[in-house]
Amino acid sequence: MIDDHEIDPPDSPLVCLVDTADRKIVQELIQSGSKAIITGTASSDEFLAILQLVMAGGTFVPSEVFKAMNNESVAYQQCV
């Protein structure tokens, strides 16, 4: 998905804005080197805090991703 884009300079952290925190999309973005995934539901204060985290060397993944993973796990356990 982002392989076609060059990051300039190469050491710049990649931050992606997404409509929804789809687990598969987020996983692909993180594997491609993204340091943060920001959803459209983030407030301006959250947006700035995430950017500060990334500039300090951190990584941010929206909590919705973990909630979705938990829901998938519960659904799988109910099917087994």
How would you describe what is shown here?
By secondary structure, this protein is α+β, with helices and mostly antiparallel strands. It has one domain (14-79). 48% of the residues lie in helices and 14% in strands. The protein contains three helices and two strands; from the N terminus they run βαβαα. The chain has helices at residues 23-31, 44-55, 63-79, and strands at residues 14-18, 34-39. It has a two-stranded parallel ribbon. β1, α1 (23-31) and β2 form a beta-alpha-beta unit.
- Tell me the domain tally: 1
Subunit arrangement of the protein: single chain
Largest sheet: number of strands, sense, barrel closure: 2 strands, parallel
Gap from first CA to last CA: 34 Å
Helical content stands at 40-55%
Could you list some keywords that capture this structure?
2 strands; globular; 14% strand; 80 residues; 48% helix; alpha+beta; two-stranded parallel ribbon; disordered C terminus
